[in-house]
Amino acid sequence: MSHTDSVDGHYIAGEWVTGEGEEFNSENPATGETLGRFTRGTDREVTAAIDAAEAAFAEWRELSYVDRAEYLWEIYHELRERTDELGEIVTRECGKEISEGRADVVEAAHMVEWAAGDARHPKGDVVPSEIAAKDAYMRRKPRGVVGCITPWNFPVAIPFWHMAVALVEGNTVVWKPAEQTPLCGRIVAELFDDTGIPNGVFNMVQGFGDAGSAIVDHAVDTVLFTGSVEVGHEIAREVAAQSGTRAACEMGGKNNIVITANADLETAVRSAVLSSFKTTGQRCVSSERLVVHEDVYEEFKSRFVEMARSVSVGDPLDEGTFMGPLIEAEHREKVVGYNDLAREEGVDVLVDRTDLDSEEVPEGHEAGHWVGPFVYEADPDADLRCTSEEVFGPHVALLPYSGGIERAVEIHNDTDYGLAGAIISEDYREINYYRDHAEVGLAYGNLPCIGAEVQLPFGGVKKSGNGYPSAREVIEAVTDRTAWTLNNAEGIELAQGLSAEI
Ligand code: UN1
Which terms in the Gene Ontology molecular function aspect does this entry carry (predicted)? Predict the structure, then answer.
């Protein structure tokens, strides 16, 4: 289906609505080609979507878990059967190389499988009571309307991290896809539409930050957010001032890989290349700091630098490409600005592919937002912005250290963020020390720090987040727990020996 000949709108109360907001385009970041025309959601569409979701909640919550999950199973099968087709759309719209485009759809399928499968798992707990004739249970209730605000870099997977669990638990949703990936938004909404899910249970409003703010301002019952640190903190502040709204936000990182003197260097180099350059550094878990022991530093450096010089940057639809373009011109300016800043801050630049050679840019892709790896060496004790602020691009610092694992972890933890990190070492004592002291939500041993599986909590500490909007952890954010107790005896007996005499 072509999405360029008409203007696509929002999906509200089971209808496609164009709305009255300004038009915007979806653009292929590798070619500049227009992929579709969309309208920006305004407060009007957000209000209509929330009203629809509120109205649909009363009946949706009464369905059984298993019945609610049936709609998700239909989507699961579509995602599985159409992985190649949808993966190509992901790649065209967000520029990730094609195996990553497909993996995005597969990750979405995994999350749907987890959430829908969980519908048949035990819910709640039976809790012992002090009183023999009393039953005590922990039960969950859906909270109501869940607002989901998702980023462009996993335009199919992350929406399902939020929505699959929220829906199976009995909530209704209002989702705003990222403004860079409205076509993926459209496709996901079509998947829901095709299931015949009751009107208003799933709603999608296209748009920019103002539409996201409108969702938060309307005090929906829960806000799930994955995206930038600035926006996540704004949402957390806004929600804290409201009564009754809950938020789970997962934000960015300035992620480290520690490579100790006992590392297998092949594993180290491959892990660092995969973590730093896959998705062109645009994962919130991408690594931008490599903390390397002095004993292996020179060898690691020469092998890493050689790979950074040779990894292919190019057409993301080409199976042989390792890195596609950055998402948009504005983001390229930011990444280039950090490369300039690093030079100004006096670091030792080892690889600089900021501007690709003209023959590296594939034909017909001159309008793409290209940038290659930028690698430099810096003193871990220097107070530099380039080694402490998140760039979200293929911009990576080598930070040599001397001393033991304690010193490496001290450098590792010396950032405001705490999302993901890895250690490469053959020494289990070092690995265990890292496991216990690394200030991150996702920690890896002898692996890259990308590629988390959906059944694990996904989120960070420090500036990186205040929640884990994925899998089981979403259940906490989208349900309330009731401690339910039932008296099976005739009289009233109270706990703690409290007198029931009147
Ligand atoms: C992100 O970093 O923005 O762990 C999400 C991974 C993916 C999800 C990444 N499963 O790399």
Answer: oxidoreductase activity
Would you call 424 helix, strand, or coil by DSSP? Answer: strand
| Element of type H or E holding 422 | strand 420-424
Nearest residue (CA) to ligand 1, atom 6? 451
Provide residues with CB under 6 Å of ligand 1. Answer: 107, 153-154, 283-285, 450-452
Question: Could you tell me where the DSSP H helices lie in 196-289?
Answer: 209-217, 229-240, 265-277
Choosing from 111, 154, 156, 181 the residue with most ligand 1 atoms within 8 A of its CB, the one to mutate for a pocket test is 154
Which is the catalytic residue, given 27, 169, 250, 439? 250
Which tens digits make up the pLDDT trace of 356-383? 988 889 999 999 999 999 999 999 999 9
Most ligand 1 atoms within 8 A of CB, residue of 99, 250, 283, 454 to mutate: 283
d(CA 264, CA 200) in angstroms, rounded, equals: 54
Average pLDDT, the chain: 96
* Greatest Cα pair distance in the chain: 90
pTM: 0.96
Per-residue model confidence (pLDDT) at position 359 = 85
Per-residue pLDDT tens for 273-294? 999 999 999 999 999 999 999 9
Ligand 1 pocket mutation, candidates 276, 450, 456, 468, criterion most atoms within 8 A of CB: 450
3-class DSSP state for residue 156?
coil
- Strands (E) across 40-133 are located at 125-127
How far apart are the CA of 390 and the centre of ligand 1, in A?
Answer: 15
CA distance 177 to 322: 26
223 against 359, higher pLDDT = 223
Rounded CA separation 223/175 (Å): 10
Q: What pLDDT shows up at residue 2?
A: 44
pLDDT of 395 over the 80 cut: yes
Given 284, 288, 449, 473, which residue is catalytic? 284
SS3 sequence of 451-495: CCCCCCCCCCCHHHECCCCCHHHHHHHHEEEEEEEEECCCCCCCH
Over residues 72-79, the mean pLDDT reads: 98
Strands (E), 273-342: 287-293
Span from the CA of 23 to the centroid of ligand 1 (angstroms): 30
Q: Check pLDDT > 90 for residue 466.
A: no
pLDDT at 358: 83
Q: Which atom of ligand 1 is nearest to the CA of 103?
A: 10
Q: How confident is the model at residue 206 (pLDDT cuts 50, 70, 90)?
A: very high
Beta strands in 105-254 (DSSP E): 125-127, 134-142, 145-149, 172-176, 202-204, 222-226, 246-250
Query: What is the ipTM, given to two decimal places?
Result: 0.98
Instruction: Assess whether 250 carries a catalytic annotation.
Output: yes
Nearest atom, ligand 1, residue 419 CA = 2
